[in-house]
Design brief:
Elements: E1 5-10, E2 16-25, H1 30-41, E3 49-60, H2 62-78, E4 81-85, H3 89-98, E5 105-107
Parallel strand pairs: 2-3, 3-4, 4-5
Antiparallel strand pairs: 1-2
Helix pairs in contact: 1-2
């Protein structure tokens, strides 16, 4: 079984950046996640909306959650809407038990169903 985290920017409407995550976001892969989120927020032009597609994120530990929280704060400071899309059961449970489900905008459906307006 392959472990690790892969990030990939996906095509999206103008003003929207979709960052797809595949694999595990943990202490070992948190730097990869941090770099990808920072790059997505620093894009030119800056996106109005950053959608993090979690459909293929199989595991998220506290280190991964911390990077998502940091990116959400950075997005908010930059006036960029930040959303999580299609989190799996483990990610949903992590968000629930940490209370961060109240902090993130979460679309339970696939990225195609995510509204692109901020």
């Amino acid at each position: 079984m392959e472990t690790g985290l892969h990030t990939d920017r996906r095509p999206a409407p103008a003003g929207t950046c979709v960052l797809a995550l595949t694999g595990e976001a943990d202490m070992d892969t948190a730097p990869v996640l941090a770099r990808a989120l920072t790059a997505a927020l620093a894009g030119t032009p800056r996106p109005d909306v950053l959608v993090v597609d979690c459909a293929r994120l199989t595991f998220c530990a506290s280190a991964g959650l911390n990077e998502l929280l940091r990116a959400r704060r950075a997005a908010e400071a930059a006036g960029v809407a930040f959303r999580l899309a299609a989190p799996g059961p483990q990610v949903v449970r992590l968000l629930d038990i940490t209370g961060t489900d109240a902090v993130f905008e979460i679309d339970p459906g696939p990225v195609a169903s995510v509204a692109v307006a901020p």
